[in-house]
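The freezer alarm interrupted the setup, so I double-checked each line after restarting. Inputs confirmed:
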Amino acid sequence: AQSVSQHNHHVILSEAASLELGCNYSYGGTVNLFWYVQYPGQHLQLLLKYFSGDPLVKGIKGFEAEFIKSKFSFNLRKPSVQWSDTAEYFCAVMDSSYKLIFGSGTRLLVRP
Amino acid sequence: GAGVSQTPSNKVTEKGKYVELRCDPISGHTALYWYRQSLGQGPEFLIYFQGTGAADDSGLPNDRFFAVRPEGSVSTLKIQRTERGDSAVYLCASGLAGRKETQYFGPGTRLLVL
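Predicted 3D structure, all chains:
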């Protein structure tokens, strides 16, 4: 069975700092990968997704993620975070029956 | 346009009671998913509908849980004989059929079983 690991449960950064959130998955075949974000009081929203092609994927709000097949990783990055990026971030992999398997999430707090 | 809506937003019930949670997907979306999110965890898959039929119900934890989508649009998740361990946020998502399609999530129903 596929699984997703997010090793950073809580991250605290100051504004303008760079962000990298780790995500590792267990499945070795063709993978479809996602990052979702949940802002305080809001529902889950898609940040970006990877299906094939360029392993560097750009999403909304300046986020990007790099798929590294040899490392089974799909880390999320942002060069300079803002206070408004405070949220919980979830990495997910889609399995063969189209369901999403989520990691446990990373809570990001950006201090102004 | 309108997103996925879920009602009620909060539900408090007593152990042993029956509850129904409703999901209204985005119009035209054929795929509908239910997930459950416990405190401190990511969402966990429960069931997936393609049209009216359950294409994958492997995530339902036991036979107290049941879901329907009779007309291929609105879906209802039904929980019988609720237990305290059922307390969680129940999320619904909808999308177009296909591997490359995004799943759009609703705001969830927060269920508390006392």
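Quick read of the result. The mean pLDDT of chain A is 93.
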